[in-house]
Input
Amino acid sequence: MNLANAFFLRLRLFAQDARAAITVELVLVLPMLLWAFFATMIFNDAYRARTQAQAAALHVADAISRNTTILTTEYLEGMNDVYDFLTGGEELSRLRVTSVVWDRDADEPMVLWSYGTRGMNPLPDNAFQLMASGEYAMLQEAMDGMEGENLISGFTQTPVADLHQRIPPVMPGEALILVESFTMWQAPTRGIFLGFDLLENSRLSPIAVVRPRFSPFINFEGAIDAVPPDFSEFDGTPSDPVSDPEGDITDPVDPVDPGDTVDVVSVTDFSAGVNDGWSSTQTTAAAGSNAAGNSYLGPFGNETRTSPVTFTNTFSQTMSQADYHFDLVILGSWDGFDRNWNLPEGETLGITVNGEVVALEPFAVNPWGVTERARESLVHTAHGRVRVTLEPVETAVDIDGDYWMDQIWSLSIRIVDPAQTISIGFVANTSEGLDNESFGFGGMSLSAVAGSQDPDRWVPDRATLIGTDSLTGFPVHSGCFVNNNPADTLSLGNYDLWGGAIPMRRTFGGDTQMRNCRSDGYGFFNASPLMVLEYENDTGNWDNNRFRIRTDDGANGAECDAVLLMRDPNGQWFWVDDLRGFGWNAGLELAHAQSGTYIIWGGRYSQGTCQADILFEHY
Output
């Protein structure tokens, strides 16, 4: 056997030798097995963390979407704590909450407001535009950050690259809520991943996009503009007549064209007799220290409940607008909403137009707070759209020479598209006689603008009219909730509540079941609001002056189990039943409510009507 054959023989024997094969295979495969074991652990933990983060983001977004009050920074920071609880809270996390509207001109999403928790920057106003154009470097620079891994650097708080493509189209007048969650995740086997640091410190950033459940958009206290740009066009509410048939109570300012010819119809100061058109000729010379030889029309008292004092005129042609101005004199000891002396519903001066109540104005001797406040109301009637404005001129003058200080108010009544014949009436809802509580007029004027009328002006549906309220005199309409149906307007500031709660007796309930109109509550209502509240948050946001609205029937709700429905200035709806600590009485705690118009409906848990107090107070 030569050397070559010997070599190939040994090589063949070596290839056929199976001794120690398992050991060799183990040496070759073990590193891969160990890698696969740790990789399975790491990737499983990564997917677990990612799934928890996504679920937590969805829960937080759902909680935010149910809000019916203005979001505060404290609330959103608290949502980050909730997020930590849902994810286990083992790693650093941040949230960024953004209100997103749709830019119809550019056909792309747009940031309305944004807030980042724990120091994270909000989304810039042009974030979606930068992402759509691929300018991620500019977006990162706008986030004010450098490269880093602390969730505060621009690199780690920059949105996911395709965020702008994940936003669905938004309905006009609405705003979606976008919740971005950021968590720095670390592998459970840090430092042993065979030298790879791919998963050593990774950012998990799931997002959730939801639509607000009970309103077209959600406000934020830090937002410069929290209202969608096209909200006024669509009024922020569905056009469905069941839920919100006629839009907001707030109408545009009544038009006045300086070029129009103004027809001066009547001016009088009652010093030379009573002007034609008044239902009474009773003129009294002022006897107090402010007399100065003047006289006033009056005095009139609670006899006007059955025989209102009226001023009636007939226009010679079609008028687009009529302006009535009265120097209103309040005489004696009116008691406003003071329960020690007044009627349960309050001592008010009712103002009517062609027999329909358009305003109830409270007055009190030595006025303070709500009875001293300038006020304005707007009511739609078949006889024209009526705006009533009251401003104090003097609140402590002596006109009639008795013990009590008297008052002078400037009363303006503007009627847009007035009927040809207009009768302005006045009714004193007072508890004492003429010598103690009365009113009169120191002067009046009437001017009108000739012109065509708006054929599309909204008027209440006469077919749904079922009567008048026994306490307020306002018309009552059956059916689902109508914002513009006539209702009592109360101008109230938070400061006015420092003297104690303001109560007034009102009628609750109706025959229309709420589930036939809305799905977010129960009870029986009428279409007409109980009240329109013009609220001003004119004090600091201290704990002891938070704002609450509640009912009280004097029997813990057993006699009049009321429920409330309210629409706030942002178009958000609240339905409330029993308030903890007050039995079956309904109540709503609004904390530091924003200023604006609140429309309130008063219902009853069972069918029919009952009477109870509605109170405005601090808590």
